[in-house]
Write a structure and sequence with these properties.
Low-confidence stretches: 11-37, 436-463
CATH topology of the largest domain: Rossmann fold
CATH architecture of the largest domain: 3-Layer(aba) Sandwich
Mean pLDDT: 87
Shape: globular
């Protein structure tokens, strides 16, 4: 062996001593949790910052960003990870939603928060499924999104309208209203919710006098409103997004079917929000007494903590979190907050198990198995990725929709406050019980019939 060969052999032997101990250490730590150095994980935040839902979209975006900032400031939770919210404007448009979803995915997000409307969420869900990116909506409630054949990577922290529609129909029955008229937009959101209300109402013996639909964004709905008036129904159920609800409510007085005219209006979560009259006092005055439902936003210490965070703007200003600084965040703001935390809890579990968070299938599985206390209450998901929850019963009194009760699909309606109806009275409108005109009550009708019979008999005797 010459001198050069001896040198090469010596180097090889030396390297072998360096490699073996390292391999042994790696084998020893194979089942220990690996805590990576500070790293950034991106989430896509898809909100309607313009378009028909912009009124609530900006506050939902603010709540989601607030959650991101809270998590990043918490040294005991995801301490080695920084979450980044990549915000995109869907403009409440499915085509735009598809475009911005693709942009977010191309930028490396591991999950998507959004969208707001069901039609936009469907468009995004198709893209997300192709790329195996889990999606959690904070306000899309269309029952069709529960179809896992079509939308396998879609989840939501709000319950679907299949639950809300049933709840609303049972509440209507509870007050013994026997005839209703319905109005909704002809899109996925409008039809999905109102269809359940109509179908369940029929099974409960409630007559649906007329079903009125209109195109989303329509400027004139007086034809539909006149058809409702002509139907004779005094109880009207509406299911639309905020902007379309504003159109309906701004024109109902022209036809004379507002609550102050003696009609009873019920609404799903879309129109039962302060945003529908935020810029129009005439709508607010005409709507007094409206009753509606909305997913229970939560109660107790967790919800109170969120409201306090919102009130104090998380130590910043409304410039940082649009709309903060009061105690009345948008109905779906706390749900957007919880959607971020759902991803955070799932990411935390996966990192502790040494799993890759960009494994979309595994992230989806982890999300569906979560159980944690959020701002909106205990969060768990069913096999379809749908949130199971209670519903608040709301009543417009003054400038706010007050919570006057809770409806649970298993236990029914529990009133916790007093409902003031459109006429300003707390007694349930008598016409609604009969499906007739205001002011008639069964005892009076019976008395009238008995009187007529008595008069006829008396005359017969005289003859």
């Amino acid at each position: 062996m010459n001198r050069n060969q001896k040198i090469i052999l010596a180097i090889i032997v030396s390297l072998s001593f360096l490699v073996v101990p390292s391999a042994s250490v790696a084998q020893f730590n194979a089942h220990e949790t690996v805590h990576p150095q500070q790293t950034t994980i991106k989430l896509g935040g898809l909100f309607p910052l313009s378009g028909r839902l912009a009124g609530g979209g900006v506050e939902r975006r603010a709540a989601a960003q607030m959650a991101i900032d809270q998590i990043n400031a918490n040294t005991s939770f995801l301490s080695n990870v920084k979450l980044e919210l990549l915000v995109k404007d869907t403009k409440t448009d499915p085509a735009t939603g598809t475009t911005v979803a693709n942009e977010a995915i191309s930028a490396g997000v591991v999950g998507i928060i959004g969208a707001a409307s069901s039609s936009v969420s469907k468009a995004i869900a198709t893209v997300a499924a192709q790329k195996k990116i889990p999606q959690i909506s904070y306000s899309s409630t269309s029952p069709s999104l529960s179809d896992k054949q079509l939308y396998p990577y879609f989840m939501r922290v709000v319950p679907p309208d299949s639950q809300q529609g049933s709840a609303l129909a049972h509440i209507i029955q509870n007050f013994k209203f026997t005839d209703i008229a319905t109005i909704s937009t002809s899109d996925d959101y409008g039809l999905g919710g109102i269809g359940v209300v109509e179908n369940v109402s029929k099974t409960l013996g409630i007559n649906v006098a007329t079903k009125q639909r209109f195109t989303p964004g329509a400027a004139d709905v007086t034809t539909q409103l006149q058809a409702i008036k002509d139907s004779g129904a005094k109880v009207i159920v509406i299911n639309t997004v905020i902007q379309d609800a504003i159109t309906v409510f701004s024109q109902m007085s022209k036809v004379g079917i507002s609550p102050k005219n003696g009609y009873t209006w019920f609404g799903t979560d879309g129109p039962t929000q302060e945003a529908v009259f935020a810029n129009d006092t005439k709508i607010k005055d005409a709507l007094q007494g409206m009753v509606g439902t909305a997913p229970n936003r939560g109660s107790g210490s967790s919800f109170d903590a969120f409201v306090n965070l919102w009130k104090t703007c998380n130590g910043k200003t409304s410039t940082d979190y649009a709309g903060c600084g009061d105690t009345t965040p948008n109905t779906y703001a706390p749900f957007a907050y919880d959607a971020v935390y759902a991803f955070a809890h799932a990411i935390d579990k996966m990192l502790k198990a040494n799993q890759a968070v960009n494994d979309g299938a595994k992230l989806l599985e982890t999300l569906k198995g979560l159980k944690f206390q959020g701002a909106t209450g205990l969060i768990t998901f069913d096999k379809n990725g749908d949130r199971i929850g209670d519903y608040n019963v709301l009543n417009l009194q003054g400038t706010v929709f007050k919570v006057v009760g809770i409806y649970n699909l298993n236990t029914g309606l529990k009133l916790t406050g007093t409902i003031t109806w459109g006429t300003g009275n707390t007694a349930v409108p008598s016409y609604a019980k009969l499906g007739g005109a205001p002011g008639f009550e069964l005892p009076m009708i019976a008395f009238g019939l008995i009187s007529i019979i008595a008069i006829i008999r008396f005359r017969k005797r005289e003859n």
